[in-house]
Amino acid sequence: MSQNQKHGADQPDIGGPTPKSQRTKIVKSSDDNEKKTLGKKLKDSEICVPIVYGNIAFWLGKKASEYESHKWTVYVRSSTNEDLGVVIKRAVFQLHSSFNNPTRVVEGPPFELSESGWGEFEIVITLHFHSDITEKPLHLYHHLKLYPEEESGPMSMKKPVVVESYDEIVFSEPSEGFLARVQNHPAVIMPRLPSGFLLPPVPMEDIDSGNRGDTKNNPLNQWFTNFSEADELLKLAAARQQLKM
C-alpha cells in the first residue's frame, strides 16, 4: 500500500466517542426451515456473551509521515480474553473507502485487524454467528481513535491510545444444540437450566478447541481495559442516577 495514499477521512477527527456499556439482544432469524433443523428452543432463557470492542493506536514518532502517523489495531474480544470463536464464526471490518480493499474479513479468532494511517473514522464491525445460533449478524460501530485527549498530554510512543466499549450479546431462547456446544465455556454465561433438564455431551473437537482463539497472550493484552461485572453495574447505576436528577 502506497504511503502517499491518504488513510482515513479527508480531515482527521480529533474527537472520539465516550466508552459505553450496553446490553444487545440479537434479532432472531426469520427462516423457519432453518429453525426446525437445529433442535428445540429453551423457552424463557438467555445466553449472555460479554464482549469488548475498540482499538489501540501507536504513534510512530520520528518515523511518522504525513499520511502514516500511527499503527493501529481494531478488534472484538471477550471481556475476560477467552475464545469468542465458540459463538462468532467470522468478523467483517468495514474501513474507510480510502484503504485498499476496505472490506476486511477475519474468518476465525482472534477477531482483530491491524493497519496504519493518519485519520480517524468510523469502522463498522459485523459479527456473523455459527449456524446453530440462527441469529442475524450483529453490527457494531466504533470510532477509530488515534490521538489522545488534550488532558492526557502529548503523544507518546510508549503509551498508546486505547478506546474500548463493553457490551453483552444476549441470545434469547437458544437451541438445545447451541446450549450443549457452549456449556462450560468460559466466554459464555449460561442460563439456569430447569430442574432435571439434561444437555447432550459436548463433542470432543469443541473441548479441544476451547482456548485456541483466546487473547490472554496477545501482545496488546497489557493495554486492554479490565472490565469487571461489578464496575459495569456501578457505571450503569451512576448513569441511571444522573437521569433521575
TrEMBL record:
Biological process according to GO: regulation of DNA-templated transcription
Keyword Acetylation: no
Domain YEATS: 41-185
Pfam families from the UniProt entry: YEATS
UniProt key word Transcription: yes
Highest rank taxon of the organism: Eukaryota
UniProt-recorded name of the protein: Transcription initiation factor TFIID subunit 14b-like
